[in-house]
Amino acid sequence: MMHPLRPTLILFALATFLGVPAEAALQADNTTLRVFIFAGQSNMVGSDSRVADIQRFPPFAGLGEPQEDVLFSYSIGRENKHLSEGWVPLAPVSNVVGPELSFAREVTRAIKAPIAVIKVAAGGTHLGGDWNPDEPIGFEMYPLALDWVRSALAALDEEGTKYRLEGICWHQGENDMFNEDYMASYGENLSRFLACWRRDLEAPDLRFYIGELCTKTIWGMDLRPRMHAISVGQRAVTEVDPNADYVPTSHVGVEVGGGVGLHYHYGTLGQLEHGVNYANAYLETIGQRPAEPRALEVWPYKAGDKVKLFVLAGHRNMEGERAFVQDLKTLRGKSSLLKDNPRIAYRYSIGGGYKISDGWEPMGPAGFYDTFGPELSFGAAVSRKLKERVAVAKFTHSGSQIIDWTPEGSEAITRNLYSGFIEFVRDSVQDLRDHGQEVELAGILYHLGENDMSWGPFRNGAPGRLQALVNQSRLDLELPELPWFVSQQSPTDDEQVNEIDVTAAIEKVAAADPNLIHVKAFDLPAQEKQLVLDTAGIVALGELLAKSVLSRR
C-alpha cells in the first residue's frame, strides 16, 4: 500500500540531491494530489446554511455547483449520517454549505496541483468525549473519523493515485464549554488530539489549522468567559506547536435569526468566508497567498497642508459585513465608489487585526471577501465639501461588543481593544505629521454595537460603556473636546428587549456632552435582515455620517 507521505519523502530526497530547497521542491510538485481533512462540530458541518442563499452573496457565486476537479469523501452528521459512496466531485451535501466549498475554490485558484477533501463532522460533539482519541464516548467521533480517512486514502492507493496529506482544518469547541472539566482541559486535550492524528496517520509533521470560535454569535456574549477559556486552550497549542496555526473567524458573517436576531451558527455567508480563512492560512504557510497591493503611489498632500483626519470605528456594519463591491455597480450613481481615490490617504486595521493596511493606501474598497464599509461614501462626501484635505483611518472588529472597547474591558482579556485602538489613532496622527502635514483629529465616528442592541444585559450596559470609552479616549489623546459622532441604527425590535429604551439612554449621554453627536440612522434603506446592513444601507450610513460632520463646520 502506498504510504501517504511517500511522495513527500521522495521529493525531499531528490531536493537534497539536487541542492534545491526542500519546501520549494515540495510546492513545485503539481502532480501529487493534496489531501485536506475537514473535521469538527456544527460550524464545520455548515448548520443553518442553505445552498439557495449562495446567490445572495456575489463573491461566492457558483459555489452551489459541483467542483468536478476536486475529489470529496464525507461522513457528515450524528445519528443520521450523510455518507459518500467512495470519492465524488466536491459539492454541497443535503442542501448544506460547508467551508470546504470556498476553501477548494480559493486553493485551486492559487496552486496548480489537484486537491481532495475528506470531511468528517457532526454537530453537538465535544473534544473531551466524542473526539477523545484515548477514551471516546458518545458518538465516538475519533475512531469513526480515523477509519473514514484511512478508507478514503486506501481507495486512492488502490487506484494508484499519488497523494500526500496536506493538513487538517479543525473547527470545534463550543460543546466543551458546557463541561467544566472539558473546558478547563481543552488545550491539553487538543494537544493530545493533534499528536494522535499524527501518530495514527503516520504523518509526524501533519499541519493543523485551528479555527477560532466566533465571538460574533450569541455565545460570544452570554458565554463570554467560557468562549474565552476555549480560545486560551487553542492558543496554548498553536503558540507552541510549529505545525499548528490559529485561524481567526470572529470577523466572518454570522446568520441572523428570528426574535432578537442573534444566532449560534455562521450560516451561509459565514461558512463561505470561513472556508476562505482556512484557504488563506494554508496558502500563507506554503508561500502562495496572493498579494493584494494597493499602494498610494504619490503622497496626496503638499508639505504643510492641513489635513483633517477622521477615524471610523465599530463593529459588523462599520466593517461592512454584507456590503459587496459587486453590488455597487447596481446602485444608481454609486459606481464611482469602486475606483480608488488617491487624493484621500486611507489606513486601516479591520477584523480585529485580521487585515491591516501597509501604511497609507488610496481610499477605495479594501475589505476582505470583496466587502467595504461606510468609509467609501463618507470619504467621497466630506472631501467634496471641505476646503481642507481629508484622511481617513478605520479600526474595526465585527466580532466585538462595546465592552471590548471600554478601558476596563472584560474577563476575556484577549478581546480587549481599547489600548490597541488608542495606539492606532495616535499612530495615524503621528504618521501624517511625519509626512509634513498639520493634522487635526477632526472626529471619531463610531457605529454603536449592533449585537449589543439585541441582548438585554449588553443593551442595558451600552450607554455607560459608550460614555466610558469616549471620556477616557479624550484623556489619553489629550483632546478634551474631541468630537465623537456616534451613529445608531434602529435597535432590535423584539419583546425580549423592547422594555430597555436604549435610544433614550444614548440621547441622555449625548445631551450631557456637547461634543458627542448622536446620529440616528433610523431611515436607512429597507433591510432584509435585522442587525446587518446591506450594500445600500452601508452607503447610506456613510453619507449620513458625512452630513453630520459637515453640519458642525
| CATH architecture level-2 label of the largest domain | 3-Layer(aba) Sandwich
Count of helical regions: 18
- The low-pLDDT segments are 1-17
**Helical coverage, percent range:** 25-40%
Query: What is the number of strand segments?
Result: 16
Provide a descriptive summary of the structure in words.
The protein folds into 2 domains: 259 residues, Rossmann fold, CATH 3.40.50; 245 residues, Rossmann fold (3-Layer(aba) Sandwich), CATH 3.40.50.1110. The protein contains 18 helices and 16 strands. The strands form 2 sheets. Strands 1, 2, 3, 4, 5, 6, 7 and 8 form an 8-stranded mixed β-sheet that branches. It is globular, with a radius of gyration of 25 Å. The termini are far apart.
State the main characteristics:
Rossmann fold, disordered N terminus, 8-stranded mixed β-sheet, 18 helices, 2 domains, 16 strands, 18% strand, alpha/beta, 553 residues
Brief synopsis:
The chain folds into two domains: 259 residues, Rossmann fold (3-Layer(aba) Sandwich); 245 residues, SGNH hydrolase (Rossmann fold). 36% of the residues lie in helices and 18% in strands.
List the helices and strands and how they pair.
Elements: H1 6-18, H2 22-28, E1 33-40, H3 42-45, E2 67-76, E3 82-83, E4 88-90, H4 99-110, E5 115-121, H5 141-159, E6 163-171, H6 180-184, H7 186-200, E7 208-211, H8 219-222, H9 224-238, E8 244-247, H10 267-285, E9 306-314, H11 316-319, H12 325-328, E10 341-350, E11 355-356, E12 361-363, H13 375-385, E13 389-396, H14 402-405, H15 418-434, E14 438-447, H16 456-477, E15 484-489, H17 502-511, E16 516-521, H18 535-550
